[in-house]
Protein backbone atom coordinates (compact mmCIF):
# COMPACT_ATOMS: atom_id res chain seq x y z
CA UNK A 1 0.00 0.00 0.00
CA UNK A 2 1.32 3.43 -0.99
CA UNK A 3 1.33 6.67 0.98
CA UNK A 4 -1.73 8.93 0.77
CA UNK A 5 -0.33 11.85 -1.22
CA UNK A 6 -3.44 12.95 -3.13
CA UNK A 7 -6.63 11.46 -1.81
CA UNK A 8 -10.37 11.63 -2.47
CA UNK A 9 -12.31 10.68 0.67
CA UNK A 10 -15.99 9.81 0.42
CA UNK A 11 -18.03 9.96 3.63
CA UNK A 12 -21.31 8.08 3.36
CA UNK A 13 -24.71 8.90 4.84
CA UNK A 14 -24.50 6.03 7.29
CA UNK A 15 -21.25 7.46 8.66
CA UNK A 16 -22.63 10.97 9.15
CA UNK A 17 -25.95 9.93 10.69
CA UNK A 18 -27.08 8.16 13.83
CA UNK A 19 -29.22 5.01 13.77
CA UNK A 20 -32.26 7.30 13.89
CA UNK A 21 -31.11 9.12 10.75
CA UNK A 22 -30.13 12.34 12.53
CA UNK A 23 -26.81 14.11 11.88
CA UNK A 24 -23.95 12.70 13.93
CA UNK A 25 -22.04 15.86 14.86
CA UNK A 26 -19.49 14.08 17.04
CA UNK A 27 -18.56 11.77 14.17
CA UNK A 28 -18.21 14.74 11.81
CA UNK A 29 -15.99 16.51 14.34
CA UNK A 30 -13.79 13.44 14.70
CA UNK A 31 -13.45 12.90 10.94
CA UNK A 32 -12.65 16.55 10.18
CA UNK A 33 -9.95 16.43 12.83
CA UNK A 34 -8.39 13.41 11.10
CA UNK A 35 -8.65 15.07 7.67
CA UNK A 36 -6.99 18.19 9.09
CA UNK A 37 -4.17 16.02 10.47
CA UNK A 38 -3.57 14.48 7.03
CA UNK A 39 -3.57 17.92 5.39
CA UNK A 40 -0.99 19.19 7.88
CA UNK A 41 1.21 16.22 6.93
CA UNK A 42 1.08 17.26 3.27
CA UNK A 43 -1.76 15.13 1.86
CA UNK A 44 -3.97 16.88 -0.70
CA UNK A 45 -7.60 15.98 0.04
CA UNK A 46 -10.92 16.33 -1.77
CA UNK A 47 -13.98 15.38 0.28
CA UNK A 48 -17.10 13.86 -1.25
CA UNK A 49 -19.75 14.07 1.43
CA UNK A 50 -23.28 12.77 1.68
CA UNK A 51 -25.64 13.96 4.41
CA UNK A 52 -27.63 16.89 2.97
CA UNK A 53 -30.97 15.06 3.07
CA UNK A 54 -30.38 13.94 6.67
CA UNK A 55 -29.63 17.51 7.73
CA UNK A 56 -32.69 18.78 5.87
CA UNK A 57 -34.90 16.13 7.43
CA UNK A 58 -34.17 17.49 10.88
CA UNK A 59 -34.86 21.04 9.72
CA UNK A 60 -38.35 20.42 8.34
CA UNK A 61 -40.97 17.73 8.81
CA UNK A 62 -42.74 17.22 5.47
CA UNK A 63 -45.97 15.27 5.02
CA UNK A 64 -45.72 11.82 3.45
CA UNK A 65 -48.43 12.96 1.04
CA UNK A 66 -45.87 15.14 -0.76
CA UNK A 67 -44.28 13.59 -3.84
CA UNK A 68 -41.20 11.70 -2.54
CA UNK A 69 -38.90 13.22 -5.18
CA UNK A 70 -39.98 16.76 -4.29
CA UNK A 71 -39.71 15.94 -0.59
CA UNK A 72 -36.12 14.81 -1.07
CA UNK A 73 -35.33 17.89 -3.15
CA UNK A 74 -36.62 20.17 -0.41
CA UNK A 75 -34.63 18.36 2.28
CA UNK A 76 -31.49 18.41 0.13
CA UNK A 77 -31.88 22.11 -0.63
CA UNK A 78 -32.27 23.04 3.04
CA UNK A 79 -29.87 20.45 4.41
CA UNK A 80 -26.95 21.31 2.14
CA UNK A 81 -26.71 24.70 3.85
CA UNK A 82 -26.51 23.13 7.30
CA UNK A 83 -24.11 20.40 6.12
CA UNK A 84 -21.60 22.81 4.58
CA UNK A 85 -21.86 25.30 7.45
CA UNK A 86 -21.10 22.48 9.90
CA UNK A 87 -18.04 21.51 7.88
CA UNK A 88 -16.96 25.16 7.66
CA UNK A 89 -17.17 25.60 11.42
CA UNK A 90 -15.34 22.34 12.15
CA UNK A 91 -12.51 22.99 9.72
CA UNK A 92 -12.14 26.58 10.93
CA UNK A 93 -11.16 25.10 14.30
CA UNK A 94 -8.13 23.70 12.44
CA UNK A 95 -7.45 26.94 10.50
CA UNK A 96 -8.53 25.31 7.25
CA UNK A 97 -10.77 26.81 4.57
CA UNK A 98 -13.30 24.83 2.55
CA UNK A 99 -15.31 25.29 -0.63
CA UNK A 100 -18.57 23.77 -1.83
CA UNK A 101 -19.12 22.16 -5.23
CA UNK A 102 -22.48 20.66 -6.21
CA UNK A 103 -22.58 18.52 -9.34
CA UNK A 104 -24.79 16.31 -11.48
CA UNK A 105 -23.88 13.63 -14.01
CA UNK A 106 -24.24 16.17 -16.79
CA UNK A 107 -21.13 17.92 -15.49
CA UNK A 108 -18.99 14.88 -16.35
CA UNK A 109 -20.45 14.16 -19.78
CA UNK A 110 -18.73 16.93 -21.71
CA UNK A 111 -14.92 16.74 -21.89
CA UNK A 112 -14.48 20.54 -21.82
CA UNK A 113 -16.77 20.92 -18.80
CA UNK A 114 -14.96 18.01 -17.15
CA UNK A 115 -11.60 19.76 -17.57
CA UNK A 116 -13.03 23.05 -16.27
CA UNK A 117 -14.10 21.26 -13.08
CA UNK A 118 -10.71 19.62 -12.78
CA UNK A 119 -8.91 22.96 -13.10
CA UNK A 120 -11.20 24.50 -10.49
CA UNK A 121 -10.53 21.70 -7.99
CA UNK A 122 -6.77 21.82 -8.55
CA UNK A 123 -6.85 25.62 -8.17
CA UNK A 124 -8.63 25.30 -4.83
CA UNK A 125 -6.10 22.73 -3.61
CA UNK A 126 -3.22 24.98 -4.67
CA UNK A 127 -4.68 27.61 -2.33
CA UNK A 128 -4.86 25.07 0.51
CA UNK A 129 -8.66 25.00 0.34
CA UNK A 130 -10.46 21.68 0.89
CA UNK A 131 -13.14 21.15 -1.80
CA UNK A 132 -16.27 19.44 -0.49
CA UNK A 133 -18.33 17.87 -3.26
CA UNK A 134 -21.87 16.52 -3.17
CA UNK A 135 -24.46 15.59 -5.74
CA UNK A 136 -26.89 18.41 -6.42
CA UNK A 137 -29.95 16.47 -5.25
CA UNK A 138 -32.11 19.55 -5.72
CA UNK A 139 -31.95 19.25 -9.51
CA UNK A 140 -30.73 15.66 -10.05
CA UNK A 141 -33.65 13.33 -10.69
CA UNK A 142 -33.72 9.74 -11.97
CA UNK A 143 -31.72 9.68 -15.21
CA UNK A 144 -29.40 12.46 -14.04
CA UNK A 145 -28.60 10.86 -10.69
CA UNK A 146 -25.38 9.12 -9.79
CA UNK A 147 -25.78 5.57 -8.54
CA UNK A 148 -24.70 7.15 -5.27
CA UNK A 149 -21.76 9.21 -3.99
CA UNK A 150 -19.42 6.23 -4.43
CA UNK A 151 -19.75 6.76 -8.17
CA UNK A 152 -19.23 10.51 -7.75
CA UNK A 153 -16.13 9.89 -5.62
CA UNK A 154 -14.73 7.45 -8.17
CA UNK A 155 -15.31 9.94 -10.98
CA UNK A 156 -13.71 12.72 -8.95
CA UNK A 157 -10.62 10.64 -8.13
CA UNK A 158 -10.15 9.89 -11.82
CA UNK A 159 -10.76 13.52 -12.79
CA UNK A 160 -8.14 15.07 -10.48
CA UNK A 161 -5.61 12.22 -10.97
CA UNK A 162 -5.68 11.30 -7.29
CA UNK A 163 -3.49 8.39 -6.22
CA UNK A 164 -5.91 7.19 -3.53
CA UNK A 165 -9.66 6.82 -3.00
CA UNK A 166 -11.09 6.08 0.45
CA UNK A 167 -14.75 5.04 0.70
CA UNK A 168 -15.93 5.38 4.30
CA UNK A 169 -18.98 3.33 5.21
CA UNK A 170 -20.34 1.72 8.39
CA UNK A 171 -18.59 -1.67 8.01
CA UNK A 172 -14.89 -2.57 7.86
CA UNK A 173 -14.91 -3.46 4.17
CA UNK A 174 -15.93 -6.38 1.96
CA UNK A 175 -16.64 -9.69 3.67
CA UNK A 176 -17.02 -13.25 2.46
CA UNK A 177 -20.67 -13.06 3.61
CA UNK A 178 -23.01 -10.74 5.54
CA UNK A 179 -20.84 -8.56 7.85
CA UNK A 180 -23.11 -9.38 10.80
CA UNK A 181 -22.50 -13.12 10.33
CA UNK A 182 -19.67 -14.18 12.70
CA UNK A 183 -18.47 -16.75 10.15
CA UNK A 184 -17.88 -14.03 7.52
CA UNK A 185 -14.28 -12.94 7.07
CA UNK A 186 -12.98 -9.55 6.00
CA UNK A 187 -11.28 -9.57 2.60
CA UNK A 188 -8.20 -7.49 3.29
CA UNK A 189 -6.71 -7.24 -0.21
CA UNK A 190 -8.13 -7.34 -3.72
CA UNK A 191 -5.99 -7.45 -6.86
CA UNK A 192 -6.51 -8.18 -10.54
CA UNK A 193 -6.34 -11.93 -9.89
CA UNK A 194 -8.94 -11.93 -7.11
CA UNK A 195 -12.06 -14.03 -7.55
CA UNK A 196 -15.39 -12.44 -8.42
CA UNK A 197 -16.33 -10.85 -5.10
CA UNK A 198 -19.85 -9.88 -6.18
CA UNK A 199 -21.09 -13.33 -5.16
CA UNK A 200 -20.29 -12.51 -1.53
CA UNK A 201 -22.39 -9.34 -1.47
CA UNK A 202 -26.14 -9.05 -0.99
CA UNK A 203 -28.06 -6.41 -2.91
CA UNK A 204 -29.20 -4.74 0.32
CA UNK A 205 -28.84 -0.97 0.30
CA UNK A 206 -27.93 1.19 3.27
CA UNK A 207 -30.57 2.65 5.54
CA UNK A 208 -30.11 6.30 4.59
CA UNK A 209 -27.97 6.19 1.43
CA UNK A 210 -28.93 5.17 -2.10
CA UNK A 211 -26.18 2.70 -2.78
CA UNK A 212 -24.87 -0.50 -1.28
CA UNK A 213 -21.69 -2.55 -1.02
CA UNK A 214 -22.03 -3.85 -4.58
CA UNK A 215 -21.77 -0.28 -5.90
CA UNK A 216 -18.69 0.27 -3.74
CA UNK A 217 -17.13 -2.91 -5.09
CA UNK A 218 -17.77 -1.95 -8.72
CA UNK A 219 -16.46 1.60 -8.26
CA UNK A 220 -13.43 0.37 -6.33
CA UNK A 221 -12.50 -2.14 -9.04
CA UNK A 222 -12.92 0.45 -11.78
CA UNK A 223 -10.78 3.00 -9.94
CA UNK A 224 -8.09 0.40 -9.20
CA UNK A 225 -8.02 -0.53 -12.91
CA UNK A 226 -7.16 3.11 -13.65
CA UNK A 227 -4.18 3.09 -11.29
CA UNK A 228 -5.87 4.47 -8.16
CA UNK A 229 -5.46 2.57 -4.89
CA UNK A 230 -8.82 2.17 -3.13
CA UNK A 231 -9.65 1.53 0.51
CA UNK A 232 -13.13 0.64 1.79
CA UNK A 233 -13.18 1.23 5.54
CA UNK A 234 -15.41 1.87 8.55
CA UNK A 235 -15.88 5.60 9.08
CA UNK A 236 -17.61 4.94 12.39
CA UNK A 237 -14.32 3.70 13.85
CA UNK A 238 -12.17 6.20 15.71
CA UNK A 239 -8.89 7.19 14.04
CA UNK A 240 -9.64 5.16 10.91
CA UNK A 241 -7.91 7.65 8.57
CA UNK A 242 -4.81 7.68 10.77
CA UNK A 243 -4.81 3.87 10.74
CA UNK A 244 -5.04 3.79 6.95
CA UNK A 245 -2.20 6.32 6.65
CA UNK A 246 -0.09 4.18 8.98
CA UNK A 247 -1.12 0.95 7.16
CA UNK A 248 -2.80 -0.41 10.28
CA UNK A 249 -6.31 -1.49 11.23
CA UNK A 250 -8.98 -3.46 9.40
CA UNK A 251 -10.16 -2.48 5.91
CA UNK A 252 -10.32 -3.78 2.33
CA UNK A 253 -7.50 -2.59 0.08
CA UNK A 254 -7.72 -2.65 -3.73
CA UNK A 255 -4.32 -2.84 -5.36
CA UNK A 256 -4.00 -0.40 -8.28
CA UNK A 257 -3.04 -1.36 -11.82
CA UNK A 258 -0.73 0.75 -13.98
CA UNK A 259 -1.84 4.39 -14.07
CA UNK A 260 -3.95 5.21 -17.14
CA UNK A 261 -3.83 8.39 -19.21
CA UNK A 262 -6.17 11.19 -18.03
CA UNK A 263 -8.45 10.95 -21.06
CA UNK A 264 -8.91 7.22 -20.55
CA UNK A 265 -9.86 7.92 -16.91
CA UNK A 266 -12.63 10.18 -18.17
CA UNK A 267 -13.81 7.59 -20.68
CA UNK A 268 -13.77 4.76 -18.13
CA UNK A 269 -16.79 6.29 -16.40
CA UNK A 270 -18.65 7.14 -19.60
CA UNK A 271 -20.82 4.02 -19.86
CA UNK A 272 -23.88 6.04 -18.83
CA UNK A 273 -22.98 9.16 -20.80
CA UNK A 274 -22.49 7.78 -24.28
CA UNK A 275 -24.41 9.44 -27.10
CA UNK A 276 -24.09 6.70 -29.72
CA UNK A 277 -23.06 3.13 -30.31
CA UNK A 278 -20.82 1.46 -32.88
CA UNK A 279 -20.95 -2.24 -33.68
CA UNK A 280 -17.63 -3.68 -34.90
CA UNK A 281 -16.67 -6.85 -36.75
CA UNK A 282 -14.46 -9.67 -35.46
CA UNK A 283 -11.33 -8.26 -37.09
CA UNK A 284 -11.68 -4.91 -35.35
CA UNK A 285 -12.54 -6.66 -32.08
CA UNK A 286 -9.35 -8.73 -32.26
CA UNK A 287 -7.28 -5.63 -33.05
CA UNK A 288 -8.69 -3.60 -30.14
CA UNK A 289 -8.31 -6.51 -27.73
CA UNK A 290 -4.66 -7.17 -28.61
CA UNK A 291 -1.61 -5.71 -26.87
CA UNK A 292 -0.80 -3.73 -30.01
CA UNK A 293 -1.85 -0.07 -30.04
CA UNK A 294 -4.85 0.20 -32.38
CA UNK A 295 -7.42 2.83 -33.26
CA UNK A 296 -10.92 1.99 -34.49
CA UNK A 297 -11.09 2.44 -38.27
CA UNK A 298 -14.24 2.71 -40.44
CA UNK A 299 -13.40 -0.60 -42.15
CA UNK A 300 -14.02 -2.41 -38.84
CA UNK A 301 -17.47 -0.88 -38.25
CA UNK A 302 -20.64 -2.80 -39.07
CA UNK A 303 -23.38 -0.54 -37.73
CA UNK A 304 -23.81 2.86 -36.07
CA UNK A 305 -26.69 3.87 -33.78
CA UNK A 306 -27.64 7.21 -32.24
CA UNK A 307 -27.32 10.90 -32.99
CA UNK A 308 -23.96 12.33 -31.97
CA UNK A 309 -21.34 14.90 -32.91
CA UNK A 310 -17.57 14.89 -33.00
CA UNK A 311 -16.27 14.75 -29.43
CA UNK A 312 -19.20 12.78 -27.97
CA UNK A 313 -18.67 9.48 -26.17
CA UNK A 314 -19.48 6.32 -28.13
CA UNK A 315 -19.99 2.82 -26.77
CA UNK A 316 -18.36 -0.01 -28.71
CA UNK A 317 -20.11 -3.39 -28.98
CA UNK A 318 -19.43 -6.59 -30.92
CA UNK A 319 -21.89 -8.32 -33.26
CA UNK A 320 -23.37 -10.27 -30.33
CA UNK A 321 -24.12 -7.02 -28.49
CA UNK A 322 -21.38 -7.47 -25.88
CA UNK A 323 -19.93 -4.22 -24.47
CA UNK A 324 -16.27 -3.85 -25.42
CA UNK A 325 -15.33 -0.30 -24.53
CA UNK A 326 -15.84 3.43 -24.95
CA UNK A 327 -14.28 6.11 -27.11
CA UNK A 328 -14.53 9.71 -28.25
CA UNK A 329 -16.00 10.19 -31.71
CA UNK A 330 -13.74 11.76 -34.33
CA UNK A 331 -16.73 12.21 -36.68
CA UNK A 332 -20.43 13.02 -36.40
CA UNK A 333 -22.96 10.18 -36.75
CA UNK A 334 -23.81 11.30 -40.29
CA UNK A 335 -20.18 11.27 -41.43
CA UNK A 336 -19.47 7.88 -39.87
CA UNK A 337 -22.49 6.40 -41.63
CA UNK A 338 -20.96 7.49 -44.94
CA UNK A 339 -17.58 5.90 -44.14
CA UNK A 340 -18.67 2.50 -42.72
CA UNK A 341 -16.56 -0.32 -44.18
CA UNK A 342 -14.27 1.97 -46.19
CA UNK A 343 -10.48 1.53 -46.34
CA UNK A 344 -7.81 4.21 -46.04
CA UNK A 345 -9.86 6.46 -43.75
CA UNK A 346 -8.90 8.31 -40.59
CA UNK A 347 -9.91 6.59 -37.31
CA UNK A 348 -13.45 6.85 -36.04
CA UNK A 349 -11.97 6.59 -32.54
CA UNK A 350 -8.28 7.35 -32.03
CA UNK A 351 -6.33 5.13 -29.64
CA UNK A 352 -5.61 8.09 -27.32
CA UNK A 353 -9.37 8.46 -26.80
CA UNK A 354 -10.21 4.75 -26.49
CA UNK A 355 -10.93 2.78 -23.32
CA UNK A 356 -11.39 -1.00 -23.52
CA UNK A 357 -13.16 -2.70 -20.60
TrEMBL record:
SUPFAM superfamilies linked to this entry: Carbamate kinase-like, PUA domain-like
PUA domain span: 276-349
A single GO molecular function term of this UniProt record: glutamate 5-kinase activity
Domain of life from the UniProt record: Bacteria
Matching SMART domains: PUA
Keyword list, A-Z: Amino-acid biosynthesis, ATP-binding, Cytoplasm, Kinase, Nucleotide-binding, Proline biosynthesis, Transferase
Binding residues annotated for substrate, in chain numbering: 50, 137, 149
UniProt keyword Ligase present: no
Biological role stated in the UniProt entry: Catalyzes the transfer of a phosphate group to glutamate to form L-glutamate 5-phosphate.
PANTHER family, per the entry: GLUTAMATE 5-KINASE, ISOPENTENYL PHOSPHATE KINASE
Protein name: Glutamate 5-kinase
Amino acid sequence: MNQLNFCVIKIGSNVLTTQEGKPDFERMKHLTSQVASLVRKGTKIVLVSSGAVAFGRQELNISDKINPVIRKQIWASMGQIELINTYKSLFQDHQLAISQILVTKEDFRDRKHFLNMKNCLLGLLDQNIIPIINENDTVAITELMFTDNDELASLTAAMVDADSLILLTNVDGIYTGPPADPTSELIQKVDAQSDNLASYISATKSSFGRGGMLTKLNMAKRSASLGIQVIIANGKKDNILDQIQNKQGSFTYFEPSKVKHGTKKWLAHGDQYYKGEVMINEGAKAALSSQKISSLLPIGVVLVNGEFEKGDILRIIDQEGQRLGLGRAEYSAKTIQEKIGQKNQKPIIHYNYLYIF
